[in-house]
């Protein structure tokens, strides 16, 4: 039974729409970056407070917050990606993103420590995490675009 041209175009459009939905659902949620930033900064502040009770509470909040954020990111969609949508170069870009954020935080913390600023590590981590919270969603959009282009081939 032959399919007419309009039916074929509509079927192809439906397949592409489903691909876009799967790819969009499989990328780390934008809120993940802000959640990680918040718990990391709070933990650094708790440690630098030198108050044992705050350090203990900060450790628990960090562990629960980090675990919850990672589980949320991993299980938010239940989608498995097709092989080939991301390459080794894309994985390297994520690694370089994390390395850059860490370098920013370390540079700020070292500079502030040299200037005898109190809570230098907290400020350094807070700076790095703010950068991550803003640029993490940008990385998500870039990777989503890469996957959509590769899926269209």
Topology:
Blueprint: H1 5-26, H2 30-48, H3 52-75, H4 88-114, H5 120-152
Helix pairs in contact: 1-5, 2-3, 2-5, 4-5
Overall description:
- The chain crosses the membrane at residues 21-47, 53-75, 87-113, 119-140.
- Keywords: Membrane, Transmembrane, Transmembrane helix.
- The protein has 153 residues and is mainly alpha-helical.
- The chain has one domain (5-152).
- It has helices spanning 5-26, 30-48, 52-75, 88-114, 120-152.
- α1 packs antiparallel against α5 (120-152), α2 packs antiparallel against α5 (120-152) and α4 runs antiparallel to α5 (120-152).
- The protein is elongated.
- The two termini are 27 Å apart.
- 20% of the residues are buried.
Question: What gyration radius follows from the Cα positions, in whole Å?
Answer: 21 Å
What share of residues is helical?
Answer: over 70%
Terminal CA distance: 27 Å
Largest sheet geometry? none
């Amino acid at each position: 039974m032959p399919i007419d041209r309009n039916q074929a175009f509509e079927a192809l459009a439906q397949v592409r729409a489903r691909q876009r939905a799967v790819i969009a659902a499989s990328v780390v949620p934008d809120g993940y970056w802000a959640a990680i930033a918040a718990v990391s900064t709070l933990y650094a502040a708790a440690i630098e407070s030198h108050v044992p009770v705050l350090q203990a509470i900060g450790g628990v909040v960090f562990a629960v917050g980090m675990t919850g954020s990672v589980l949320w990111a991993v299980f938010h969609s239940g989608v498995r990606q097709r092989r080939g949508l991301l390459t080794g170069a894309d994985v390297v870009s994520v690694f370089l993103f994390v390395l850059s954020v860490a370098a920013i935080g370390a540079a700020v913390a070292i500079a502030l420590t040299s200037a005898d600023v109190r809570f230098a590590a907290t400020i350094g981590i807070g700076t790095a995490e703010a950068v991550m919270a803003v640029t993490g969603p940008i990385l998500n959009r870039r990777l989503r675009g890469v996957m959509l282009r590769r899926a269209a081939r």
